[in-house]
Amino acid sequence: MNQIQIIQVTPEQLKQVVQDAVKIELEQYLKNPEPQKEDELLTREETAELLKVSLATLDRWSKNGKMQPLKIQHKVYFKKSDIEKALKPVLR
């Protein structure tokens, strides 16, 4: 951890230093608002419910490559980030 020693600084200068530091941190947060965390896994049922589609539709999308399922033994999961990436805006 860096240590900062402030010697002979006016209150206005200290205020400016703090404002600049807060501004930098805020700009970085706004570029990437959510901290990096492990991706949440959803079951087939949770994914179908989230997307408001049937399990058959979800299976078809998986076979067509629209959704990328993950298998752990005999269970199938979907990454929440992959689901969000698969959603595309409709252009009119």
From TrEMBL:
Show the SUPFAM superfamilies listed in the entry.
Putative DNA-binding domain
Domain Helix-turn-helix positions: 41-87
Q: Which PANTHER family match?
A: HELIX-TURN-HELIX DOMAIN-CONTAINING PROTEIN, PTHR34585
What's this protein's name? Helix-turn-helix domain-containing protein
What species does this protein belong to? Answer: Flavobacterium agricola
**Highest classification ranks of the organism:** Bacteria, Pseudomonadati, Bacteroidota, Flavobacteriia, Flavobacteriales
